[in-house]
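Data card: per-record layout.
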Amino acid sequence: QVRLVESGGGLVQAGGSLRLSCAASGLTFSSYTMGWFRQAPGKEREFVGAISWSGNTPFYADSVRGRLTISRDNAKNTVDFQMNSLKPEDTAIYYCAASQFSAVTLSANYAFWGQGTQVTVSS
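The structure for this 123-residue chain is written out next.
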């Protein structure tokens, strides 16, 4: 019923930019905080950033702060992810997720997850 679908992943050069998008359906999108996580091979799933239900107060992990902009369009039920100055360590599967809780960095607080999209940054 609830679907979160990421798109926009692919191969990029180090120093380049990438835009990901997440389309949501089957939920009252505007009532959820939307987060982005990533998981590299052999690593735990890592919080990247999130944006509140209102679209205000985006919050970013230290590793991407200054490079990442997350935005949302509640009319379209979409969340965008724009990251610049990509680094090889950004290589991971990127997931969007929906949460009803304020502690946005905790993956356990997210009720719904997309299937992920692969981002590979070549050096």
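Known properties of this structure: The CA atoms of residues 26 and 97 lie 13 Å apart. The longest strand covers residues 18-25.

See the next section for split statistics.
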